[in-house]
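Long-time lurker, first post.

We've been arguing in lab meeting about whether zinc ion would sit comfortably in this protein at all. Half the group thinks yes, half thinks no, and nobody has a model to point at. So I'm putting the question to the forum: if I give you the sequence and the SMILES, can you give me back a predicted structure of the complex? Inputs are below. Any interpretation is welcome too.
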Amino acid sequence: MLTIPASRPNAYTGSPLDRVSDRRDDADFVAAALASKESLIAPVWRSKSLLRGVEEGAPEAVLLTREAAEAVLMAGGHDQSTWALLGLNGGTPVFAVDCSAAEDPLPLLPEGMGAFHDLRAVAGLLPPGEASMLAHARGLMHWRTRHRFCGVCGHTCEPRSAGNAMACTNCNAQHFPRTDPAVIMLVVNGDECLLGHSTRFPNSAMYSTLAGFVEPGESLEEAVRREVKEETGVTVGACQYHSSQPWPFPASIMLGFHAEALSREVTIDPAELRDARWFTREEIRNPEAAGFLLPRVDSIARRLIEDWLEHAP
Ligand SMILES: [Zn+2]
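Top reply:
Settle the argument with this. Predicted structure of the protein with zinc ion, as tokens:
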């Protein structure tokens, strides 16, 4: 099968941060970073990110100084706020802080700091590095707030490694942030590709690539073949890796493939899909004329489709 190269970086990649994973356990370094007036803080409130300019259609990430974030850091009266060191931007430490304990965090911030929004709604309009940084903050804080107790013995966990790990206070088990692999694949057959309309799509006209989670003990290629078979009944042969897209909403990474169909008959799984069918290149080039919508421009699904249009013979 033809290798189709990725034409451009995927959304949520390109963070400017040096993650300094080798310095997270250096207590002096972390304490100095925490105390520094220069440090910046990306607040996360109930999985939403602080942004301004959203109404104007020109969103930008808002990072707070230590001083501006003081009240938010104390929100909820925790003796230990949920924070984590994301990394260094240039030399500047950047932290994520979860301020979900506050019923409304905006009054705790200086004026003009924007508002909390779902990052996914505006990520395509943000500078790529900002989208990546905010996705990092959101994914890490989601993991932190859901791993307060040990999965081994059930006792309380406490943060380690500048908030990038949790350790059990009873059995000392170490817990690390999870990233669940999901495969996303454009199934192709000659001049046509297979797209599905998921039962989860809010827009009734949208057709997109198939996707699903990798299961334990399964290779990525096996997951591609299983998911396509389960959802559409189509048999897949060769699979070619294309690119990946972080998807920490809450904890995934999308691994993109082009997959060659060995059969054509489509039998959908109605629990997953409302419809799936073969589209010609001509239809993909003119979705309006064909009466359907392609996935969003900033999605890896769209990239798999566009790169196939560009590169396939
Ligand atoms: Zn434990």
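For your lab meeting: The radius of gyration is 22 Å. The first strand starts at residue 40 and ends at 45. Whichever side wins, do check it experimentally.
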